[in-house]
Amino acid sequence: MVRFAGNLDAVTTDASAPLPYHHGNLRAVAVAAAVEEVETVGVAGVSMRRIARRAGVSHAALAYQFGDKTGIFTAVAADGFRLAAEMIGSAATGAAGFLLGGMKYVEFGITHPGHFEVMFRPNLYRGDDPDLASARDAAFDLLYGSARASLAAGSEQVTDEEVVGLVVAGWSLTHGLATLALTANLRDRVGDDLASFAPTLINGVVTLGNLIRREGENLATT
Question: pTM of the prediction?
Answer without folding.
Answer: 0.85
